[in-house]
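Appendix B, Record 12. Input sequence as logged:
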Amino acid sequence: MESDYPEPRFCGYVGMPRALYLESFARYVRDIFDTDVLLVGSALKTKDWHDLDIVVVLSDDEWDRYGFGDPKDRFQNKRWGAYCLAVSNLGKKIVDCDVDFQVHQKSYNKIHDQDAELKIA
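Logged structural output:
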């Protein structure tokens, strides 16, 4: 019998069934931003993580279209903060743990180590 569900894949050290909730949350985020959703941080390296770090990286044009301003001052941008807070709280509700969600600009992205990120949607 063929399943409508995608094949399960490695989700770091998130564990089951939380990994399924994480993938569900990531699909919502992908639908919002229309780009890959990345799991980064300690959940990729250890079972002793305390939150899930989720990142989307937008092209420079998309970053500008969202009105996030200078990426060096993103923490001062109210629009960027509102998106990050709203999506983090959505993640917390779905995944049932703390989610640190951030949007990065491609040309200013600090995540360059492919081993330090995992595409989850």
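The chain has one domain: 35-119.
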